[in-house]
Amino acid sequence: MAVENAKVLIIVNNWGIEETELTRPLRDLKAAGAQVMLAATTLDPCETVQHDRYEGETLTPDARLADVQAADYDLLVVPGGTCNVDRIRVNEDAITLAQEFAHEGKPIAAICHGAWLLVNADLIEGKTASPCRYIAADIENAGGHYVDKQLTVDDANGWKLITSRKPDDLDYFVGAIKEALA
Q: What is the C-alpha to C-alpha distance for residues 172 and 88, in angstroms, rounded to an integer?
């Protein structure tokens, strides 16, 4: 499969998303020819933030989390933003989607706090990940291995996990997503 034939699902809560962690993958993958779907908790506008505190761009979701299925996509992206992921990691639709992607052997890319969803979905055990340092203990307590690197790609347990720490790592993160879709 090539990037231009790929179907990518990005999932978020409707507010508190770290702006560049959503907009960079969304726009870069679309520019590369991928079909990208933004699914949110509701169809209300998605309000992003910069550095968890300054108002960011507002985007319109394409679908609700409850209305999308992993079978229709090739890769899942989970952007960060502390408030975004704090809400989405307890959302049953988001948890189920992450579990379905992993069980179908499809890649999941999570940046910054995005890996919190994988902790709650019981998917991090046996994986090495490099999310933001603030959730390192959560990764370790869930049976994963935390590393402080710009990018980690782990193929353990039959599915690929792509993780990066923060917006400064987006070049590596988006590059790894494109490589996983190549």
A: 24
